[in-house]
Amino acid sequence: MLDYMMRTRLFKWVDERLEIGALIRSQATEYPAPNNLNYMWNFGSIAMVVLLLQVVTGIFLAMYYKPDAALAFDSVERIMREVNYGWLLRYMHAIGASAFFFVIYMHIGRGMYYGSYRKPRELLWIVGVLILLVMQGTAFFGYLLPWGQMSFWGATVISNLFGAIPWIGDFMVKLIRGGFAVADPTLNRFFSLHYLFPFILLAIVVLHLQALHVVHSNNPDGVDFKDLKDAARTVPFHPYYTVKDIFGVGVFFFFYAFFVFFEPTGWGYLLEADNFIRANPMQTPAEIKPLWYLTPWYAILRSFPWKLVGVAVMGASLGIVFFLPWLDRAKERSGRRRPIYREMLWVWFLAVFALAYCGMHRPTPALLLLSRAATAYYFLFFILLPWTSRLDDPKPEGA
Amino acid sequence: MSDQIASSGRRQFLAMATGAVGAAGVVVTAVPFVRSMQPAKDTLAMATTEVDISKVEPGQLIVVPWQGKPVFILRRTPEILGRIESERVELRDPDNEDPEGGENPSWFLKGDKKTRTFRSRRPEWYISSAICTHLGCVPLLREEPGTPDLGSDWPGGFYCPCHGSRYDLSGRVLAGYPAPRNLEIMEYKFLSDTRVLIG
Questions:
Q1: CA dist A33 to A106, A117, A212, A226, A255, Å?
Q2: Contact assignment for B36 to A89 by CB distance below 8 Å
Q3: CATH code for the part of the protein at A289-390
Q4: CA A245 to CA A119: how far, in whole Å?
Q5: Which of A326, B31, B37, B123 shows the greatest Cβ crowding within 10 Å of its Cβ?
Q6: Count of CB atoms within 10 A of residue A132's CB?
Q7: A10 pLDDT above the threshold of 70
């Protein structure tokens, strides 16, 4: 059908002036992709769809939301009750945020398992981790906007973290807050930044795609792309993966729609109960925690009794991920062909789950121990990788 | 390679069918977004405004907001009413026959000659939209007849400073000026001699 459209006079008229035909050919109809990609490769395209969904719902929400401490909470309630389909916009946006992180975590997990971060895709990986950081920033700014109890106190706690930085800490905290405490100035600037960051994200995603299109996709067996091409084991992206991606998006929408229409609070995990209470600077809720997708880092932060250490280690836990391409020295790329690495990686995923669990609950002694053990493994996985990655390599002849 | 893919009739049908369903999906998805931009339910509920007219002097004009838009309330003297009946200016639509004149209330549409001349429920009180039917400015009251700048046969009325449109003291637009229609009469009723409910 695409080539039918590309043969019309209208298309040719535009193509003569915009070279869009060449773009479609180079990026879709003649762009080679491995013929053996499994469904773990769908998450990138799903993430793009979710990003677009967030931008669109966000823009329409912004037509009614009021970024003023005295008006914000009520403006959200107004959107829920008075604005036509306002409830739908709100639920789509809130659930979309969690969906975005779920999809991205699956996407990163795919990258870690199949070695998609390895040469020549190191830059692709780095840009990807950058996307994760910008997403976390966007989510952090966005969560303050409803001005509920959790919004307010979550922002208070996280902005306090910057105070741990020596010398410039207090200056930074005041700069972020626009005052002495989280208040109206904070809300206004967080709204501005929350509106801005997704567009920065879009630009970085374009960079991510550009980086991908130069080195081409990895595949579940980790075979070099050059070899796949030589063996004629590639297919054009359109129609094979366009159709598969559309199908994948459809399956995603099935689950997304379930939450939006039938379980919008996500049993308290997608829309927290405490956030339906107006922010009260005089009273802290019983438990302060971020939404599930930030809880692993929250648990790492809380593992250490010293503020600066907690902040530093939390930062390091994100920083170390950048270095994965250089820490991994195995001969093979894909986890399919690396039994030892595979097992270690599953334990690492388990550690992250454990950290998420710890971050979601009050730090009892048992959970504190668990979060410390999980943090330790989190780092050891990376630190020891230069040696452990070699364990899967075939033994040299005659050893 | 792409030629081979499109040549099969069945493939083409499937592709077209998918495209059609996809297009329908896009339309259905767009509906809530577009509708969310329509006035919210509480905005629509702010449809009426009550105004206290006890302090308005004979010959005085006040401008009050209703649904966020300006509304004229002019307390006309018997002398003004006399001038309206005897005015000699050419009106575009003296009998309010323009079908695009807005949602006129039933008492106005079925009114007698006096109602249609004075364009109000009570001749003493002139209540209408204050939005010039040309491009939306709020006209000024120029109640004095025959002033130097407006001409000797000016009966008194409203003068719009933006592009010069003129209306008589019943809000009827004069011919020869840009505004196409009379000032709009909206629904209102007198709750008492001192309170009027607009909308």
A1: 20, 17, 11, 11, 27
A2: yes
A3: 1.10.287
A4: 25
A5: B123
A6: 16
A7: yes
Q: Among A373, A310, A377, A314, which Cα is nearest to A343's?
A: A377
Does the CB of A62 have a partner CB in chain B at under 8 Å? no
pLDDT at B42: 84
- B14 → chain A, closest CA residue: A1
Indicate whether B45 pLDDT > 90.
Answer: no
Q: Which of B2, B3, B38 sits opposite A84 (nearest CB)?
A: B38
Q: pTM for this structure?
A: 0.82
According to DSSP, the residues that pair with B167 across neighbouring strands are: B158, B173
Span B9-30, mean pLDDT? 91
Which residue is it, tokens 């050891």?
A: A380
Q: What is the DSSP letter of B112?
A: -
Higher pLDDT, A282 or B42: A282
Annotated domain spans of chain A: 30-284, 289-390
- Residue A21 touches chain B, beta carbons under 8 Å: no
Q: Do B2 and A2 touch (CB under 8 A)?
A: yes
Positions of B marked catalytic: 163
- Measured between CA atoms, how close is B79 to chain A, in angstroms? 49
Q: Is the pLDDT of residue A399 over 60?
A: no
8 A C-beta contact, residue B133 and residue B179: yes
Q: Which two tokens stand for residue B169?
A: 């003291």
Q: Which residue of A has its CA nearest to B45?
A: A82
What CATH number was assigned to the domain covering residues A30-284?
Answer: 1.20.810.10
Contact A3 B41 (CB under 8 A): no
The CATH superfamily assigned to B45-198 is Rieske [2Fe-2S] iron-sulphur domain (2.102.10.10)
User: Do residue A85 and residue B5 have CB atoms under 8 angstroms apart?
Assistant: no
DSSP state of A278: B
Comparing B102 with A312, the larger pLDDT belongs to: A312
Phi and psi for A127 in degrees, rounded to 5?
A: -60, -40
Instruction: Calculate mean pLDDT across residues A311-337.
Output: 95
- pLDDT digits 0-9 by tens, A19-76: 999 999 999 999 999 999 999 999 999 999 999 999 999 999 999 999 999 999 999 9
Residue A260's CB is within 10 A of a number of other CB atoms, namely: 21
